[in-house]
């Protein structure tokens, strides 16, 4: 195998001189009928533990479930509007009591890989198991406002729910599971049923071939994938490999053993781009990085102090140095992809002078001339901590430390093992001063768990931030379906957080995935890495 | 001999149980929680509680311990908290992979180590001897994961872009086999697997090989000075026969005991090497399980490692008796 690939690389190197235009022409020249075949190997840091939708947790397994092995009811188009997938169409009726009946009409030509048609009973089965607490489905809160599911006929299912703005969003994420295979399994046993790891049966464009723990998942084209959804995928096989060490992953990718390398470290991007046979696909994803200030500590209680800290941190430099430009300076918890993002709001500008002024006004002055400000007996001194194993965050620690030293704030930095750090931060006692961390924003955003007063003792209210107006806004946007009415509220929310800075929002993350040029038709965006997996193809001459 | 083996195995039982109890206590004392990987703003605390209950993690520690011990003694390893699958089936997947890797390494260690040791002893104080000594010390002082990364960078990556480099010396950097392994023929599979074994087994074994070479050299030197070797030479036997037939068997004696020492060393080295080379073995399983606080999996993998070490030591002791007829374990007959 190695042999062919090296030759392929040499050919690619020759072709590279011809430029982008000819490559595009060349790709158009391969007729559709010749695009079928070939294997793509995907490698990433995360192990996919289960293909059982009831059991899995991480994004990569959800991606494989939603785009590779299974067929969710709907998808999002590029504007993040729901489009039909397993569901051909849907209909909503408002009930007299103000609730909603959402009726999905399913396609009748989508079959499980063992030949049984996917029906409304599968949707109801999945719905019921998710609602059953014994299943302990991780994202049961997705269906919190859903009440029940009723099968109307084999391909029609009606769902009863309370109205709320993002009520379609769960059906993008939930992959219906086969009732005929899992219907008899006790809910508490569903999670570790062999279905998920040894014999998953899906209904998506690819079917399961093999799983070796700690190593790989192998899928092959589902020849019988519904014609109405585009028929079989171009690729014959799709292999997912788990390679924990990043150097190894990169070596395998550059040597040609791996075609798609998910999540490339920023400092590797240039090396990959420099080669003619590989390129990097970047897109702004849903993650953002921030410094959380523990609002229970004296120093962080004053919003003016927190604002001063943000002003003193050169966030553009953090993006440039720690992320090599793969990011955009952030201004709040509503990232640019979200319809409610406040585009006119400018992020606070880097200004150490304003920071010093604010600190002085807030009573933090360096009286004894040791370079560190004091206020009464309190010193402007704290510990900034993050988890071990993220070079980016480690760099951020030192950058923040240096920036804050400039304005007379003394920061000591510490790395802590991820699990024990998590335990310290999630503990209601909040055993930390400040920490560099990240969140992933949902399409259906609900920030109450992060900033609501009612969550002060919850697991995720790390900032111990409480503002009744923010509570009111978050409660109202959670039930306001009319976006034009919700938008001013969302904007006000972002303005308040900008002013009060419970976090210093560092940057919106740009994800970098590396792909070999021989794999064509690869498109990725905020919806995921695998949105176009069915249309990936390799010209016959480029196959292994 | 049989009685001896049985007695040794019986003695191992409290030892292994003690190790497991200690590991259990240390695990519980470490901060963290197996459910932490599921903690996420959209996962409600009730769901986590339910999961804790499903896995029995809501019980006090001593109850968990007794419960674990009970299922464990009945031969059930339980279910992995993070992988959602019975641990027995995970072990069944992984143990052969680790045995394959450490077995190959062991072969490498002794073949290379003994070979070099003999050469050095025979050519004592020659330029070759000094060069090999220096080389051995150099390699011996390299940590295996670092060596692994270097091997990957050079033989798994850089040489793929060197035109004159022979194809046979370009190695895959990770995993046990290629993406199309299941589509290859028997011979193809064999060579594919062999190619994948080269770098990790070198990374895992080469420093031990260097130390075996040192032991072999001194042991050989000691034997060569003995009277019976002089006699053999005096008889006019060719030097090759003297060394390989008369001297080697006696010189090997202390080396065989090293086997028992190296096996645990190999297994612990496998943890790092398997991570670096993405080798799906026990080492990786235990590493991932510890990171994720997957308690039942850590216990099960520790158990397997403990048993392997006990068995390895036993094998070394038995081999010792086989090689040296003077050694007998009481109650046994000479074999």
**Shape assignment of chain B:** globular
Please describe the biggest sheet of chain B, giving its number of strands, its sense, and whether it closes into a barrel. none
Number of contiguous helices of chain B = 11
Helix-strand sequence of chain B: HHHHHHHHHHH
Question: Could you characterize the architecture of this molecule?
Answer:
The complex is a heterodimer of chains A (544) and B (335). Chain A is an alpha+beta fold. Chain A is 30% helix and 23% strand. Chain A is built from 17 helices and 21 strands. In chain A, the strands form five sheets. In chain A, strands 1, 8, 9, 10, 11, 12, 13, 16, 17, 18 and 19 form an eleven-stranded mixed β-sheet that branches. Chain A has a four-stranded antiparallel β-sheet with strand order 4-5-7-6, with helices on one face. Residues 1-25 of chain A have low confidence and may be disordered. Chain B is mainly alpha-helical. The model of chain B has no long low-confidence stretch (mean pLDDT 85). Helix content of chain B is 71%, strand content 0%. Classes of the chains: A alpha+beta (544), B mainly alpha (335). At the A-B interface, helix 1, strand 8, strand 10, helix 8 and helix 14 of A face helix 2, helix 4, helix 6 and helix 10 of B.
């Amino acid at each position: 195998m190695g042999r062919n690939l090296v030759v392929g690389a040499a050919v690619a190197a020759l072709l590279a001189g011809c430029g982008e235009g000819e490559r595009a022409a060349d790709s158009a020249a391969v007729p559709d009928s010749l695009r079928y075949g070939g294997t793509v190997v995907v490698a990433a840091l995360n192990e996919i533990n289960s293909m059982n939708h009831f059991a899995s947790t991480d994004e990569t397994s959800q991606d494989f479930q939603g785009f590779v092995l299974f067929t969710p009811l709907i998808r999002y188009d590029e504007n993040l509007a729901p489009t039909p997938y397993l569901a051909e169409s849907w209909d909503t009726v408002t009930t007299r009591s103000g609730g909603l009946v959402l009726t999905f009409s399913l396609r009748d030509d989508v079959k499980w890989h063992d030949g049984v048609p996917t029906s409304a009973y599968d949707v109801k089965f999945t719905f019921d198991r998710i609602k059953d607490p014994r299943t302990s489905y991780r994202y049961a809160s997705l269906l919190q406002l859903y009440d029940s599911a009723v099968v109307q006929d084999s391909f029609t299912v009606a769902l009863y729910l309370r109205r709320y703005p993002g009520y379609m969003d769960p059906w993008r994420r939930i992959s219906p599971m086969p009732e005929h295979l899992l219907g008899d399994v006790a809910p508490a046993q569903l999670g570790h049923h062999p279905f998920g790891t040894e014999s998953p049966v899906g209904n998506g464009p690819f079917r399961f071939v093999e799983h070796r723990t700690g190593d790989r998942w192998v899928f092959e084209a589902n020849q019988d994938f519904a014609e109405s959804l585009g028929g079989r995928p171009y690729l014959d096989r799709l292999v997912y490999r788990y390679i924990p060490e990043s150097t190894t992953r990169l070596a395998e990718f550059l040597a040609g053993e791996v075609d798609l390398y998910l999540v490339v470290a920023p400092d590797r991007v240039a090396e990959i781009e420099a080669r003619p046979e590989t390129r990097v696909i970047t897109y702004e994803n849903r993650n953002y990085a921030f410094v959380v200030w523990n609002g229970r500590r004296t120093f962080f209680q004053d919003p003016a102090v927190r604002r001063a800290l943000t002003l003193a941190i050169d966030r553009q430099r953090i993006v440039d140095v720690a992320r090599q430009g793969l990011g955009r300076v952030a201004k709040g918890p509503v990232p640019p992809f979200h319809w409610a993002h406040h585009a006119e709001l400018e992020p606070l500008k880097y200004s150490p002078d304003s920071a010093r002024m604010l600190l002085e006004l807030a009573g933090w002055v360096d009286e004894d001339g040791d370079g560190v400000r004091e206020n009464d007996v309190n010193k402007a001194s704290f510990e900034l901590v993050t988890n071990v194993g993220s070079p980016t965050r480690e760099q951020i620690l030192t950058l923040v430390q240096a920036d804050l030293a400039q304005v007379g704030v003394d920061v000591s930095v510490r790395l802590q093992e991820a699990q024990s750090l998590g335990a310290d931060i999630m503990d209601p006692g909040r055993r930390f001063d400040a920490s560099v961390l990240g969140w992933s924003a949902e399409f259906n955003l609900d920030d109450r768990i992060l900033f609501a007063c009612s969550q002060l003792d919850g697991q995720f209210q790390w900032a111990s931030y409480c503002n009744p107006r923010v509570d009111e806004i978050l409660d109202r946007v959670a039930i306001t379906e009319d976006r034009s009415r919700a938008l001013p509220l969302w904007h006000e929310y972002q303005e308040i957080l900008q002013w009060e800075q419970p976090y210093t929002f560092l940057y919106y993350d740009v994800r970098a995935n590396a792909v070999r040029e021989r794999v064509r038709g690869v498109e990725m965006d905020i919806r995921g890495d695998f949105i176009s997996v069915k249309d990936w193809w390799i010209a016959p001459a480029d196959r292994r | 001999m049989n009685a001896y083996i049985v007695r040794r195995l019986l003695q191992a039982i409290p030892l292994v149980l003690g190790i497991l109890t200690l590991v259990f206590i240390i695990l519980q004392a470490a901060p963290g929680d197996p459910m932490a990987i599921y903690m996420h703003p959209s996962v409600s605390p009730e769901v986590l509680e339910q999961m804790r209950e499903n896995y029995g993690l809501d019980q006090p520690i001593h109850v968990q311990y007794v419960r674990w011990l009970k299922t464990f003694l009945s031969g059930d390893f339980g279910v992995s908290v993070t992988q959602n699958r019975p641990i027995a089936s995970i072990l069944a997947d992984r143990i052969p992979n680790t045995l394959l890797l450490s077995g190959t390494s062991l072969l490498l260690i002794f073949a290379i180590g003994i070979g070099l040791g003999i050469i050095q002893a025979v050519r004592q104080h020659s330029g070759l001897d000094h060069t090999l000594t220096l080389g051995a010390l150099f390699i011996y002082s390299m940590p295996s994961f670092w060596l692994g990364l270097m091997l990957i960078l050079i033989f798994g990556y850089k040489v793929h872009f060197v035109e004159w480099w022979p194809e046979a010396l370009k190695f895959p950097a990770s995993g046990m086999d290629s993406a199309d392994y299941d589509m290859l023929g028997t011979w193809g599979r064999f060579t594919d697997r062999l190619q994948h074994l080269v770098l990790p087994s070198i990374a895992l074994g080469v420093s031990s090989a260097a130390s075996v070479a040192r032991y072999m050299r001194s042991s050989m030197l000691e034997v060569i000075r003995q009277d019976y070797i002089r006699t053999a030479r005096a008889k006019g036997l060719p030097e090759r026969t003297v060394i390989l037939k008369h001297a080697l068997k006696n010189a090997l004696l202390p080396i065989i005991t090293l086997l028992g020492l190296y096996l645990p060393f190999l297994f612990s080295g496998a943890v790092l090497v398997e991570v670096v080379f993405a080798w799906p073995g026990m080492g990786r399983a235990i590493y991932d399980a510890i990171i994720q606080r997957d308690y039942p999996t850590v216990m099960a993998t520790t158990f397997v490692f403990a048993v392997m070490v006990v068995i390895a030591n036993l094998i070394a002791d038995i081999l010792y008796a086989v090689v040296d007829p003077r050694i007998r374990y009481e109650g046994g007959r000479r074999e």
